[in-house]
Specification:
two-stranded parallel ribbon, Transcription Regulator spoIIAA, alpha/beta, OB fold (Dihydrolipoamide Acetyltransferase, E2P)
């Protein structure tokens, strides 16, 4: 498939991780490409386990009419292709769960996307005054893409300064002192909010907001451009934000 040698890839990824603290790597693998032997698949599984990609997907090769690969000899049986894919997916589930657990107790920036759709469907039929049910805020971290990656379930209550100082962190600019403050309006969709990761559920995170980083994603872009003094395209600041703090 005209890929670079494995040793080159390992060296490159090791170098990136050494030079960029908090880097999250993402990749996708094809299982069962024509000519892939059991030995080659085992080597791929070992590579994926060693590199422990924070985000990894896998799919089984499917021959497409008109493509050169569909005419290659040594086509891998459909059952073997699916089994190899499933082995990679199972491995990544373990890696993803460990990565999520490693974030507990840290602070991450979360983009508030909206509300859990399943909760929305039940609204007005659940418990509570007048039959209304509080919707669950959801968002995603800087490592996650919408619809395909794990979620951050966001508490409607803010972490106060006193609680934050107890953990040894600096006071926030927006959180009042005292215990959790339910009277403060919860974050709203479009906000970028710094949050404390309180727990992990498989791959998803449960987080408590600390302070607003920006009222909207556009606000984050503008702030990054202003700090850099570049005034360039939004894509430049997006790349900067992709680097873990």
């Amino acid at each position: 498939m005209n890929r670079p040698p494995a040793a080159h890839t390992r060296t490159l990824l090791d170098t990136l991780r050494a030079r960029i603290p908090g880097l999250a790597l993402r990749t996708t693998f094809i299982s069962g490409f024509p000519g892939e032997s059991e030995e080659a698949h085992a080597e791929l599984v070992d590579f994926a386990a060693t590199m422990a990609f924070e985000r990894m997907g896998a799919f089984a090769y499917s021959p497409e009419d008109g493509t050169p690969a569909a005419l290659y000899p040594e086509q891998v049986d459909a059952g073997a292709r699916a089994a190899r894919r499933d082995e990679l997916v199972s491995l990544q589930q373990e890696i993803g769960a460990r990565f999520a657990e490693s974030l507990v107790g840290t602070e991450v920036d979360v983009l508030i996307d909206g509300y859990d759709e399943e909760e929305d469907e039940d609204e007005g039929e659940g418990e509570g005054e007048g039959g209304a049910r509080r919707r669950q805020l959801i968002g995603r971290t800087q490592w996650d893409a919408p619809d395909v990656d794990p979620l951050a379930f966001v508490s409607p209550e803010w972490l106060c300064d006193a609680e934050r100082r107890e953990r040894g962190g600096p006071p926030s600019s927006s959180s009042p002192s005292g215990p959790f403050v339910p009277s403060r309006p919860p974050p709203t969709p479009g906000m970028m909010v710094r949050c404390l990761v309180t727990s992990a559920s498989l791959f998803d995170l449960e987080v408590t907001p600390i302070e607003v980083v920006a009222d909207s994603w556009a606000g984050v872009e503008g702030e990054e451009r202003e700090r850099s003094g570049s005034g360039g395209a939004a894509g430049a600041s997006s790349r900067e934000l992709a680097t873990a703090r």
